[in-house]
Amino acid sequence: MARVGWRFGFGVMGVMGLMMFGVLAGCGSREGKPMPEFAMKTVGGEAFGNKDVRGRVALFYVSGEG
After folding, report:
1. Which of 20, 29, 39, 41 lies 20 to 30 A from 63 at CA?
2. Could you give the CA distance from residue 51 to residue 30 in angstroms, rounded to a whole number?
């Protein structure tokens, strides 16, 4: 059972990564459907909004700071 656990974990991480790539690539920015605004902080400490990130590759993390 433990052998399957890490595969499942990587699968979940992969799906979440694809979802984040879709948001950053601007999938929701078609006419008539504006892209929601968001702001994040990268691992390097830079703060980005959705207008700043388009076309860039950045590594993000989730913190419990709210």
Report:
1. 29
2. 14
